[in-house]
Structure formats: C-alpha cells, structure tokens
Specification:
The chain is α+β, with helices and mostly antiparallel strands and 291 residues long. The protein contains eight helices and ten strands. It is elongated and about 60 Å long.
C-alpha cells in the first residue's frame, strides 16, 4: 500500500466521537462533521475490517504535516517540479518551519509551491500508532521516535516529500449550538438567510452568556444540529482526528473548560461552542484500523 494512502487511511479513518451508536447519530452524520471525500476517493480499499475499539491516548501522536509533490508523485502530482527540485523545496521549507515561533499556516500559504493534498498547505493530523511495527519504516520508525516539538527529516514517499512536526496530543469535549442558513453545507429545509442566521446566533449568544444559563437547554431550543437532542454534546475527540471541521476544532481548543465562545462561522453556519471537561477514565471510542 502506498505511503500516501496509508497516511490518509490512518488519519481520516480515525473516528473519535464520544456518542453511543444506540442513542445518537454518528458524528459523521452531524452538520459539524468534515467531509473527506477526496481523501476517501484517493485511498485504496484495505482487506482488513474496521473495528470499534477504545484508543489509549498514549498511542495517539499528533503532527503538523505538509507535503511537496513532484512530477512523479502519485496519486496527485505537481508537473512543475522534478523530483530533485521538490526535495530541495522541501528542505528549504523545513528550514523556515523550524524557526522559533514559526507560523505553519502563514509560511506554507506563502511558500511558492502549488498546494498538494492540504488546501491550506498543511494540516494537523492525529495518527494511531497502536502497532507502529506494521507501518512502513519511512513512517513508523521516523515518526514514533519524535518527541513533542521535534521535526522529522524530509520523508520521501510515493506522494512526494513530507515534513512532520510532533505537537502535543490533546483531547477535548464540546457542546455547540448551530444556527444554519439556506446556503450552509448540509442545510436541508433551512430557509433563513445568512443575515437572519447571524442575527439569531447573536441573540442566542446573549442568552448563553447570562448567569446560570442552561447551555444544553438552549441547544435543544435553538440548534439546527441533530446533537441538539443531547443538549448539543458532540463527544470527546483528539485534535487533528479529521472528524470535525478544523475551524470549529481550533476555536474549541482555545476555550477553557466551561468557557463559551463567541460566534464561530464555518461552512455549516454559525456556532456557539462550550468546552466541556473530558471525564477522567472515559476512553475515546473510535472506528479505526490497527496500525
């Protein structure tokens, strides 16, 4: 199996929702869930069956990652770069990223290459290393040796040249209230305009910020997400699992436990997020492949 494919399977098959299948919708069915259609099309089918298992956080490594493809890369190539040129570009990019307080988003956005695989030039991925010995050496041996804050060497794969940086693995839990508009992704039967949705979201935010406000009750009253039936509770996740919208996830992670966000806009509409504590001893349930 190609390394590029394997990375996608590990990263995007990692489902970290805390919902139980018998009493709520799967997170993938919720309007907040990200669509990884391109990744799924690129990934070849594996003969092993997905299994639901509880992932120990110590086996979850989280990375910033970027990729520079070349004319021979598969499944996505960059015809403007020969292999040696792509390697050189990757080494140049790595030097920039290794600088103190480097902003990956800004650096990769401005770096003079065509974007490959990651729309913003880089991504945050939580990878399951339950069985690292089953991974190709280029990934398993390089990445599992990294400590937090350390960079990988430039890793050559069939997809091109990867750069990884290990960052802190974070678990979080969140509730939200979603106000959709007719142009929102997955909006079915929603007729309000974007302006009307914004106005309603502002009204709900004021109510949510009131002393002793019941956020769960407000979610049941106002939210357009099926999670309203659980008081807006989405579950427990690993940062970078790919299961939730990235804008939503990063906004949630900026909150302290019990804190309520301002209005957060994503492709799904306007969100009001409340970060919840991760219950001690409560494992994350996920559908994933071993290694």
């Amino acid at each position: 199996m190609r390394l590029f494919t394997l990375v996608l399977i590990i990263a995007f098959a990692l489902s970290c929702g805390g919902q139980k299948a018998d009493d709520t919708k799967k997170t993938e069915d919720l309007p907040i869930a990200k669509k990884e259609e391109t990744a799924q099309k690129n990934a070849t089918k594996d003969d092993s069956k997905d299994e639901q298992k509880q992932i120990d956080p110590k086996f979850i490594y989280t990375f910033y990652v970027t990729l520079i493809a070349c004319d021979s890369s598969t499944p996505v190539s960059n015809p403007k770069l020969k292999k040696d040129e792509a390697r050189k570009k990757a080494e140049e990019l790595k030097v920039l990223l290794e600088k103190k307080d480097a902003d990956w988003a800004k650096i990769t956005e401005k770096f003079p290459i065509e974007k490959q695989q990651f729309p913003n030039g880089f991504s945050i991925l939580a990878l399951n290393f339950t069985n690292p010995e089953q991974l190709p050496p280029e990934l398993g041996l390089n990445l599992t040796k990294l400590k937090e804050g350390e960079f990988s060497k430039v890793i050559e794969t069939n997809a091109g040249f990867y750069i990884f940086k290990r960052v802190k693995t974070e678990q979080y839990s969140a509730r939200h209230i979603l106000v959709m508009h007719k142009d929102s992704a997955r909006a079915e039967g929603v007729t309000r305009t974007k302006e009307e949705a914004k106005k309603l979201a502002e009204q709900v935010l004021k109510e949510a910020k009131q002393p002793n406000a019941d956020f769960a009750a407000l979610a049941k009253k106002y939210s357009d997400c099926p999670s309203k039936e659980q008081g807006g509770l989405l579950g427990t996740f690993f940062r970078g699992s790919g299961q939730l919208d990235t804008v939503f996830e990063e906004a949630a992670l900026k909150l302290k436990e019990g804190e309520i966000s301002g209005i957060v806009e994503t492709q799904f509409g306007y969100h009001i997020i409340k970060r919840e504590p991760v219950k001690s001893g409560e494992p994350v349930t996920t559908d994933t492949k071993k290694g």
